[in-house]
């Protein structure tokens, strides 16, 4: 066997390691109740059925939790881009006193455990009327997504030559026009990827969402708190439903994966 | 159309003085080249005129308008960038139309202007393409067409040919010259390439270390450099400088004595002479001095000789069939009337000393 | 014209204000919460935390998880990254598949591995098929901490190796090919090239990956809860239980301060250990 074949075999093995658990939970999500509890189980699905999935969606509170998750993730996306992109632009285009300090601040925020933010905020949000609201959760999720948004958009804007903007100025644009007509169209795909990434961060986050809500649960918070007293089919369907959008998003932004993670971690 | 006038521009980058009180006037319809080595401040000066950078002090006028405080969009200029800065998300047509759209030009005028500019640059068949589908040379043409389409009062060009390969650069150089001679747009053009400067300019402003050291017609700059920097920077190979002792109002090279135009301040004087202005002979000649050949480099159209006169080296060009070997002694006769005399202490030309 | 100076500050300001309110302020609040009682300053929360039945196990398992999971992830990711260099066809496909877990939440990962480790799950079915067991066995109960621990390790390695992989692949792309080619010209074997050229040059990326993964590993929560409830206590889980179930923000804050303390310690340790890398590389 040549080294090349061994490499390929190892790569396939690692790919299987990633894919098999996803495949298994998908199998369970699309089986009937009896197969979920069956023992022993075969690897392949026995009876394709929407019973488990429809049972999941039929549970009281799931619909609302999905709605809340969408609202929270949508708000997070909006806040992260609106707050992060201008800062990223400033870091990319201007040399200003405090730029390095700001970069360090951004990097530092990633070194703090979420627990230390979520607990005092949960206490404070009760006073502020933000406790148990999608807005409150979205604010905490924005704190998580913002550092990414700043660093990623900054590298995004760095990739757009400054001269393009200057050319627009000499051709009659003011700064805002030049940004809208030249920079924005070029940055749009990257900004979209940043937004999607912020969405996924929020969609997946469970710790803060659980601490900060009581009735207005997001989907992960709802699943987590219901975990111990819910039947297996409910858990598997929920787990599968959590994974699906994330898979789609990662597929959409795969071209930007390295900008998002590689540069954001520098 | 209008001229450009800058007065006493000072620009600091941190503690470094990038521009040290530069004043310059470009006449209406004139083509002026800012020439100098990298870091001399030429691009900074251009960007200050464009309004892309702001000087610590000094004023910029375009025509009669003081534009010092105006943003680039209000200066009625157009600029061609070194990397072209063609908008990648717009078609060639929309790129050329960009400035006109900002002026809210009427559709008929817009189309006519775009087509005229595109035809001038021979890219009228590329209008529907995107920049990614164009070669470097074609993008360059789009950049120039885009600048011309707005009919600016002055055209600013920042090393527009430096990203092209050598052959294309030669072609574009001639084309630009034809084009700007026709359009008669006042142009300020930055380059570090002295051949480009010589070939294009009505006048060349040679810059060094944040100052304009000489501002004159190309042949004047070539033949009568204001100082050793200009003589050394312009011409390839550069001007030779020989340090010679002074006797009264004459300088001496061995048996050869040469008249000085004015008496120099020191005991020595520098003779500046172009390599082609030294006539090489195999035998001793009147009005000549001996030098030993160190290196012979055949360059096709001529031979380039490196010779030593006492401890000093000099370069001489001779016809390709000239029989020179290294180690040989040649007799060099300086062409009278082509000699420059400079002060070795300051490097300034003796006749030119008042300038700069 | 001069007014342009404040433009960058204007652009940065909203995010700074936001981060002050949602990072700096809660940080201070958490510290205060943990050391302030009903009557003034107190260590009562920390004492209650330390005296709790679950405390010792929580510290033990959290640190143990970080110590086991992080090196596994880094080594696995390094192997994957090097493997990518040896594959020409389908490189992008493998890279995509391997990074899929990036989008998967810790909760979902926990649930996915629950499907494998649960009583009537795939692991037991597999063992039955091999004839090793007759009846389903419990793996995730209080009595089988080792197996529960193993399940958490598997789920964490499965989920978060991709993050390390992406950081390392991005780091590898920054290393100019010429270094490796030069080493090859001088006759270095692939193995030596990896140790003497690639690894030292990859050190900054490795450092980032290690620090980031350790901090995140110390926060492990949803995977553990999904797989074993409170059967495998961890620090973040305890903070959650104290806040939610016992309604005691003081002790919860004490736990969060402890997590922060261990994170800072680990980060400093990494920075110290990985600094003299010229000597390590030589």
Automatic annotation (TrEMBL), chain A:
Keywords: Cell membrane, Membrane, Transmembrane, Transmembrane helix, Transport
Location within or outside the cell: Cell membrane
Spans through the membrane: 6-30, 69-92, 104-126, 138-158, 179-203, 232-253
Lipid bilayer topology: Multi-pass membrane protein
Major localisation: membrane
Gene Ontology terms: cellular component: plasma membrane
A Pfam family matched in the record: BPD_transp_1
GO biological process: transmembrane transport
All copies of domain ABC transmembrane type-1, residue ranges: 66-253
PANTHER family per the UniProt record, alphabetical: INNER MEMBRANE ABC TRANSPORTER PERMEASE PROTEIN YCJP, MALTOSE TRANSPORT SYSTEM PERMEASE-RELATED
Family membership: Belongs to the binding-protein-dependent transport system permease family.
Protein name: Trehalose transport system permease protein SugB
Automatic annotation (TrEMBL), chain B:
GO biological process per UniProt: carbohydrate transport
Single GO MF annotation: ATP binding
SUPFAM superfamilies xrefs: MOP-like, P-loop containing nucleoside triphosphate hydrolases
SMART domains xref list: AAA
A Pfam entry, by short name: TOBE
InterPro entries to which the protein is assigned, alphabetical: AAA+_ATPase, ABC_transporter-like_ATP-bd, ABC_transporter-like_CS, ABC_transpr_MalK-like, ABC_transpr_MalK/UgpC-like, Mo/tungstate-bd_C_term_dom, NA-bd_OB-fold, OB_MalK-like
GO cellular component: ATP-binding cassette (ABC) transporter complex, substrate-binding subunit-containing
EC number of this enzyme: 3.6.3.19
Enzyme class: hydrolase
Keywords, sorted A to Z: ATP-binding, Cell membrane, Hydrolase, Membrane, Nucleotide-binding, Translocase, Transport
Protein name: Maltose/maltodextrin import ATP-binding protein MalK
Gene that this sequence comes from: malK
Automatic annotation (TrEMBL), chain C:
Compartments, record wording: Cell membrane; Membrane
CDD domains (alphabetical): TM_PBP2 (cd06261)
InterPro entries named in the record: MetI-like (IPR000515), MetI-like_sf (IPR035906), Sugar_ABC_transporter (IPR052730)
Keywords tagged on the record: Membrane, Transmembrane, Transmembrane helix, Transport
GO biological process, one term: transmembrane transport
Annotated GO CC locations: plasma membrane
Topology versus the membrane: Multi-pass membrane protein
Tagged with keyword Transcription regulation: no
ABC transmembrane type-1 domain span: 59-270
Main location: membrane
Keyword Transport set for record: yes
Annotated TM spans: 7-28, 63-86, 93-116, 146-170, 210-232, 252-271
Family per record: Belongs to the binding-protein-dependent transport system permease family.
Name this protein carries in UniProt: Trehalose transport system permease protein SugA
Organism for this UniProt entry: Calidithermus roseus
């Amino acid at each position: 066997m040549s080294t090349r074949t061994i490499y390929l075999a190892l790569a396939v093995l690692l790919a299987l390691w990633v894919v098999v658990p996803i495949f298994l939970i998908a199998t369970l999500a699309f089986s009937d109740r009896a197969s979920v509890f069956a023992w022993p189980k075969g690897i392949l699905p026995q009876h394709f059925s929407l019973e488990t999935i429809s049972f999941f969606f039929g549970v009281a509170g799931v619909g609302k939790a999905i709605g809340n998750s969408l609202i929270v993730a949508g708000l997070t996306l909006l806040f992260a881009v609106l707050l992060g992109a201008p800062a990223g632009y400033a870091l990319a285009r201007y040399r200003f006193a405090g730029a390095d300090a700001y970069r360090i601040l951004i990097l530092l925020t990633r070194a703090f455990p979420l627990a230390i933010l979520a607990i005092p905020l949960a206490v404070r949000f009760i006073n502020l009327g933000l406790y148990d609201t999608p807005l409150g959760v979205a604010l905490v999720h924005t704190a998580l997504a913002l550092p990414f948004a700043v660093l990623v958009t900054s590298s995004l804007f760095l990739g757009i030559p400054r001269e393009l903007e200057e050319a627009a100025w000499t051709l009659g644009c003011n700064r805002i026009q030049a940004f809208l007509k030249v920079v924005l169209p070029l940055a749009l795909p990257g900004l979209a990827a940043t937004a999607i990434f912020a969405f996924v961060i929020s969609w997946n986050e469970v710790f803060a969402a659980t601490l900060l809500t009581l009735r207005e649960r997001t989907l992960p918070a709802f699943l987590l708190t219901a975990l111990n007293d819910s039947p297996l089919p409910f858990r598997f369907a929920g787990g599968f439903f959590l994974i699906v959008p994330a898979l789609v998003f990662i597929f959409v932004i795969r071209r930007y994966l390295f900008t998002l993670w590689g540069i954001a971690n520098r | 159309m209008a001229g450009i006038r800058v007065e006493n521009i000072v620009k600091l980058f941190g503690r470094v003085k990038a521009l040290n009180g530069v004043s310059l006037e470009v006449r209406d319809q004139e083509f002026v080249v800012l020439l100098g080595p990298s870091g001399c401040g030429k691009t900074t000066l251009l960007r200050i005129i464009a309004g892309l950078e702001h000087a610590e002090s000094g004023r910029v006028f375009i025509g009669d308008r003081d534009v010092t405080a105006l943003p680039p969009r209000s200066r009625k200029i157009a600029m061609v960038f070194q990397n072209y800065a063609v908008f990648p998300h717009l078609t060639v047509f929309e790129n050329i139309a960009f400035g006109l759209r900002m002026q809210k030009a009427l559709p008929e005028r817009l189309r006519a202007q775009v087509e005229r500019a595109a035809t001038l640059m021979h890219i009228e068949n590329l209008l529907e393409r995107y920049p990614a589908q164009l070669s470097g040379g074609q993008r360059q043409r789009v950049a120039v067409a885009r600048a011309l389409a707005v009919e600016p009062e002055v055209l600013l060009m920042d090393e527009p040919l430096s990203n092209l390969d050598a052959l294309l650069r030669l072609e574009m150089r001639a084309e630009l010259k034809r084009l700007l001679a026709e359009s008669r747009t006042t142009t300020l053009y930055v380059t570090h390439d002295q051949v480009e400067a010589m070939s294009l300019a009505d006048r060349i402003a040679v810059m060094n270390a944040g100052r304009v050291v000489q501002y004159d017609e190309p042949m004047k700059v070539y033949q009568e450099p204001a100082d050793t920097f200009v003589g050394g920077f312009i011409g390839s190979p550069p001007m030779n400088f020989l340090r010679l002792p002074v006797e009264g109002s004459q300088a001496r090279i061995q048996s050869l004595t040469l008249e000085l135009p004015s008496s120099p301040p020191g005991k020595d004087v520098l003779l500046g002479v172009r390599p082609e202005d030294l006539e090489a002979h195999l035998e001793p000649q009147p009005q000549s001095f001996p030098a030993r050949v160190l290196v012979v480099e055949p360059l096709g159209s001529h031979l380039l000789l490196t010779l030593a006169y006492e401890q000093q080296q000099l370069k001489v060009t001779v016809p390709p069939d000239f029989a020179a070997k290294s180690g040989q002694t040649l007799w060099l006769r300086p062409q009278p009337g082509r000699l420059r005399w400079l002060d070795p202490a300051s490097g300034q030309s003796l006749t030119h000393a008042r300038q700069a | 014209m001069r007014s342009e100076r404040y433009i960058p500050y204007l652009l940065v300001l909203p995010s700074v204000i936001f981060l002050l309110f949602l990072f700096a302020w809660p940080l201070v609040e958490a510290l205060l919460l943990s050391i302030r009682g009903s009557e003034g300053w107190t260590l009562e929360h920390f004492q209650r935390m330390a005296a709790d039945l679950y405390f010792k196990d929580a510290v033990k398992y959290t640190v143990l998880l970080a110590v086991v999971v992080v090196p596994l992830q880094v080594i696995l990711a390094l192997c994957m990254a090097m493997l990518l260099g040896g594959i020409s066809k389908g490189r992008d496909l493998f890279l995509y598949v391997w990074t899929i877990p990036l989008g998967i939440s810790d909760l979902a990962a926990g649930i996915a591995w629950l499907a494998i480790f649960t009583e009537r799950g795939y692991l037991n079915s597999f063992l039955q098929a091999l004839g090793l067991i007759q009846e389903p066995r419990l793996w995730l109960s209080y009595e089988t901490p080792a197996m529960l621990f193993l399940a958490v390790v598997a789920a964490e390695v499965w989920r978060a190796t991709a993050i390390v992989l992406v950081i390392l692949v991005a780091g590898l792309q920054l290393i100019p090919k010429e270094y490796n080619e030069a080493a090859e010209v001088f006759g270095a074997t692939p193995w030596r090239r990896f140790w003497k050229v690639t690894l030292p040059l990859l050190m900054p990326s490795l450092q980032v990956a290690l620090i980031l993964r350790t901090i995140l590993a110390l926060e492990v929560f949803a995977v553990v809860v999904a797989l074993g409830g409170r059967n495998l206590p961890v620090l973040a889980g305890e903070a959650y239980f104290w806040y939610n179930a016992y309604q005691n923000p003081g002790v919860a804050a004490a736990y969060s301060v402890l997590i922060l303390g261990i994170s800072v310690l680990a980060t400093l340790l990494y920075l110290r250990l990985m600094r003299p890398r010229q000597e390590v590389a030589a």
